[in-house]
Amino acid sequence: MEAASGPHFSGLRLDGGRLSSSSPTSSLAPNSTLTADSLLNQPFVIGVSGGTASGKTTVCDMIIQQLHDHRVVLVNQDSFYRGLKPDELERVHEYNFDHPDAFDTEQLLECMKQLISGQRVKIPIYDFKKHQRSSDSFRQVNASDVIILEGILVFHDQGVRDLMNMKIFVDTDADVRLARRIRRDTVERGRDINSVLEMYAKFVKPAFDDFVLPSKKYADVIIPRGGDNHVAIDLIVQHLRTKLGQHDLCKIYPNVYVIQSTFQIRGMHTLIRDTEISKHDFVFYSDRLIRLVVEHGLGHLPFTEKQVVTPTGSHLSLYSFLAVFHFLCLYHPLLCGDNICAL
């Protein structure tokens, strides 16, 4: 991110170094080691970005409503605006609130790291009419299963991006965004329409082109039309539910696949755990379970289509041939010996 050493007005400063991924701000904690327990307890972090008034908050609210079975917390980047100094307040109409330097990214990173590590944090409250943070009040946020970080520039800083498990970009038509911005700033933030239009042309649109739109390339999911796109939001929620319901081992080892439990598998597990089961039955059902594991594992291997000609002259794909052979081995052990059936 551009150096955040001072305020920015109409002239956007483009000098200054970028934070590297090896900097302390890009990791959960300097010189720390992630244990299995910490990985299991880590929440799922979602970043939601997009242009001003694109419908980011609406998308976040819809995700939160549909994930009612899990604890979800929303963190707004707007809460981390820097308070304006007296000389900046005198020229507030020349201040660029859409530039990365308008935000206290260091404090945002610190709060996010604390939430991810399971700590309770205090989120500042920003007054958009006074352009100052409240000195005597804050919003207390507890650790949750899902953390949603929403803001126009949450993808701009690499340190912030590295904390996210999923990045969503809300893509809405510019005319729609302008109309929403006018309505929001005049009704909620006490500004007149002329100042809103002036700031949009002078700061908002250039900042969108320079900072927000280029960050779209980091998104994992792009939602056209924002909150009106119910299909996209439903798919995201379904994916989140799958991730949140994932087996604990899968959260530690990304290459672990857990076979979906069935009545057959649960029944065989019950039998082999019975202390009174006979040796023959224990070997029989253990063998069946092992075959299911091998079959499931083979399904994740790459393969190419091959044709097999049977003695009767029929043509089968190699996959179909193996499936039939495996069925015979699994359900008709008398047709082929146990030594042949062992895969």
Would you mind describing this structure in some detail?
Residues 1-30 are annotated as: Disordered. InterPro entries: P-loop_NTPase (IPR027417), PRK/URK (IPR006083), PRTase-like (IPR029057), PRTase_dom (IPR000836), Uridine_kinase-like (IPR000764), UvrC_RNase_H_dom (IPR001162). It holds the Pfam family PRK. Residues 10-30 have a biased composition (Low complexity). GO terms for molecular function: ATP binding; excinuclease ABC activity; GTP binding; uridine kinase activity. By secondary structure, the chain is an alpha/beta fold. It folds into 2 domains: 24-247, P-loop containing nucleotide triphosphate hydrolases (Rossmann fold), CATH 3.40.50.300; 263-341, no CATH class. The protein is 41% helix and 15% strand. The protein contains 13 helices and 9 strands. It has helices at 36-41, 56-66, 86-90, 105-116, 158-161, 174-187, 193-212, 230-244, 248-252, 263-272, 279-298, 318-331, 338-341; strands at residues 44-50, 72-76, 121-127, 132-141, 146-150, 166-171, 221-224, 307-309, 315-317. The chain has a 5-stranded parallel beta sheet, with helices on one face. Strand 3 and strand 4 form a beta hairpin. Helix 6 crosses helix 7. The chain is elongated, with a radius of gyration of 28 Å. The two termini are 55 Å apart. 22% of the residues are buried. The model is unreliable at 1-39 and 333-343 (pLDDT under 50).
